[in-house]
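Dear colleagues,

As part of the handover before I leave the project, I'm documenting each prediction I ran so the next person doesn't have to rerun anything. This entry is a single chain, and its sequence is reproduced below.
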Amino acid sequence: MKNTFETTKVIQLKALCSVSSTIAIVSHTNPDGDAIGSGIALTRFLRQAGHEVRFFVPNHFPKFLAVIPGTEEVGIYGELCDAAHDYIADADLIICSDFNQIERLDRMTEAIEANVIAPRVLIDHHLNPPEYELSFSDTDYSSTAHMVYDLIEAWGGTEAITPEIAVALYVGMVTDTGNLSYGNLTPALYRAVASLIEKGVQPLEISRAINTQSESRLRLVGYLLSEKMKVESDRHTAYITLTRAEKTRFNHQIGDTEGIVNMPLAIEGIDFSAMFIETLDCIKISFRSQGDFDVNLFARTHFNGGGHKNAAGGRFFGPMNEAVATFTRIIESVHP
């Protein structure tokens, strides 16, 4: 792994923070464990260093992430609106964490674009990063939380990682790697995890918290796998659809669909999985693969999206039946 947090760049970040009266950290829509964990960890670390910092996300995150100390301080832009807009628009420094496309911020994009003075800093592990004044971008990392761990270590040493920060980083690391089961599982990642456990993280306690599910969520999973999953064995592909009416039927809550797109990959012979979720504005699509099929390229080329080689997302502007028809037509030619 290249030295993403080389001394020169860390010194640059310290200098930017030192001349900033207010710092805004922002992360993506429908924030997951990595977005919330890395954002809270960075916020707390910078506050320890004496900086005025606030962390904002566009909308709510899954309830199970309350296991991370400090979630009550995360600013939900959709609820704060005017106050959040003013803070971001007037901030002296904006740190963009765990996303590579400004469009992933929804309405929060307006506040960031209104700020034409503040330098932007990127901390992210996705492909195709934007050009910012200072970027920590490395696709070899399995999570942004691991990047923040290395940043804190380079800035202040591991002694700067408090027990609360350790929990935030750990949750980010394990949720973005499927409990350490996805790609990029490097020796450095396991050393970081071990260090966080030495700081007091309780893996079993956190595992119970992040894997606890509601009855309605379990029933939704059962319904989707038994009634809505389509398997195209000849294309080594499976896909699942979820409509707004079905979300209402199963009392869908934020986070209820997390991880479902990965489940079809457990089927023998299936190496490409997609999940289509109907929203008010579009059909949101999650893509997962195993092996050499590049879903980042697939999403960017066909569905206004992107992400990682084996995990990406996209959008389709039209009804569900057209989204599925478009998808199945495309896979006939690109995923034989």
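The longest helix spans residues 33-48. Residues 87 and 282 are 29 Å apart (CA to CA).

All the best with the project,
I.
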